[in-house]
Specification:
The protein is of the alpha/beta class. It has a single domain, classed as Rossmann fold. It has a nine-stranded mixed β-sheet, sandwiched between helices. α3 packs across α5. The chain is globular, with a radius of gyration of 18 Å.
Length: 306
Amino acid sequence: MKKSRLIAGAVFLAATLASAQAGQTIDPALEISTLQLWPSGAPQTAGTVPADLPTLTVFLPQKGRGTGSAVIVAPGGAYLGLASNLEGRQVADWFTARGVTAFVLKYRLGAKYLYPIPLLDAQRAVRLVRSLAASYGFSPDRIGFVGFSAGGHLAATTGTLFDTGKPDASDPVERLSDRPDFLVLGYPWLNAMQPSGQYITYCSVIKTIPPATCKEDEQKYTPSLHVTSQTPTTFIYSTTDDRTVPISASVDFYRALVAAGVPAELHIFRNGEHGSGLGAGKATLDQWPVLLEAWLRDQGFLTPIK
């Protein structure tokens, strides 16, 4: 597979062209563009307001400093909203500072867009980013999916429920695989679809879902039930006293990864509130991005492509 690196000016020009083709806006000064996942209109869309348009906002690394890797970042928000600053833009900036092209995902959610529509958006995001690899100067086989809280559940679901593409699709993007090459999960809500005592669940925050559907979703969209040897290598960060998501959810997923022979790394901190982002300025939690950077370097994702 040919891997290309474009000079800084060419990268930005290609990004501009890609954004223009998608019919979205771009800020030339900040080198930030927003792409619609489906330029001709997202499937199963209930309206045309901005919330009904799933998008990727593109953040480019410093000119000439790209490593050839990319990430899709899925903010959390209990599938009711998106923490797109704390768990989106700030995370994207962290990755671009290390030479990784970052795409912040705005996926459809809430009672208006029940599962599997958020997953449909995430899978499309992986295919679309893969289709843009040459334009943005990264490798199509170095695409990670980063998710926090509900976004962590979405990332893990994307990493366990994927296909190699649809060869006969009229849309060339749909012919590509939607499998991420690595996963990064921050305090992930991996038990979102499972009853869990005092902890919130997908069906407890979206109360209009019928009980029968909740039971079906528990089997369909609990990532630990679908781990195989093909699940991407994974990094997980959680805290023991998280009162929103039980630590057992991360442990269960980690155990499933290890049992399937998938390279995985789990870091559990004793203290830390849910929604800490990159550490929230706390001395202990600020160490988890340091551990993540070491893991990414060890995997070769921060090593520039020659």
